[in-house]
């Protein structure tokens, strides 16, 4: 894997996915890419791309890791899926939405599992 794409939205749930991904690049020699849509990203005012060694406010990302942050308009599952290819690992987290919410809106992790072109890790 050259790149690990992590779907984030600023929630404590998404922090679990990021924490998992932070440990993987040491083994896989990959770049971490934090991906979110403006509606899902807490404190993300405008779409764009930035490069940062501490791309998440509450998690200390080791300085030696290569981290990109991408914010693009679109649905919560669609934006991370657009950023992945067959040679990327997509990391998402389960949110624990109730059964009615899953039935009406679907699950981001489920959509990613169904539509990602490459491997997906779902962090509980």
Question: In words, what does this structure look like?
Answer:
The chain has 124 residues and is α/β, with parallel strands linked by helices. It has one domain (3-123): Rossmann fold (3-Layer(aba) Sandwich). The chain is built from four helices and six strands. A six-stranded mixed beta sheet has the order 3-4-2-1-5-6, with helices on both faces. Helix 1 links the parallel strand 1 and strand 2. The longest helix is centred in the N-terminal third of the chain and has 17 residues, at 12-28. Mean pLDDT is 75; it is low at 41-48 and 52-57.
Name the features.
124 residues; Rossmann fold; 4 helices; 30% helix; alpha/beta; 6-stranded mixed sheet
Write the layout of secondary structure elements.
Layout: E1 3-7, H1 12-28, E2 31-36, E3 48-51, E4 67-71, H2 78-82, E5 88-93, H3 99-105, H4 108-115, E6 120-123
Parallel strand pairs: 1-2, 1-5, 2-4, 5-6
Antiparallel strand pairs: 3-4
How does CATH name the architecture? Answer: 3-Layer(aba) Sandwich
- In N-to-C order, the SSE pattern is EHEEEHEHHE
Shape: globular
Provide mean pLDDT, rounded. 75
What fraction, in percent, of the residue positions are helical?
A: 25-40%
Distance between the termini: 22 Å
DSSP helical segment count: 4
Strand order of the largest sheet: 3-4-2-1-5-6
Percentage of β-strand residues = 15-25%
Alpha-beta classification:
alpha/beta
Q: Describe the biggest sheet?
A: 6 strands, mixed
Could you tell me the CATH topology label: Rossmann fold
Number of domains: 1
Ranges with pLDDT <50 over ≥5 residues?
A: 41-48, 52-57
Radius of gyration: 13 Å
């Amino acid at each position: 894997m050259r790149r690990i794409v992590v779907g984030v939205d600023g929630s404590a749930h998404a922090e679990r996915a990021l924490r998992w991904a932070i440990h993987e690049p040491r083994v896989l020699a990959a770049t971490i890419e934090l991906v979110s849509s403006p509606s899902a990203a807490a404190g993300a005012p405008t779409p764009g791309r930035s490069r940062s060694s501490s791309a998440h406010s509450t998690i200390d990302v080791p300085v030696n890791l290569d981290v990109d942050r991408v914010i693009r308009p679109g649905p919560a599952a669609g934006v991370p899926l657009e950023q992945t290819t067959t040679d990327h690992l997509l990391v998402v987290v389960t949110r624990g939405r109730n059964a009615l919410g899953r039935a009406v809106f679907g699950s981001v992790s489920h959509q990613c599992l169904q539509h990602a072109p490459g491997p997906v890790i779902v962090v509980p």
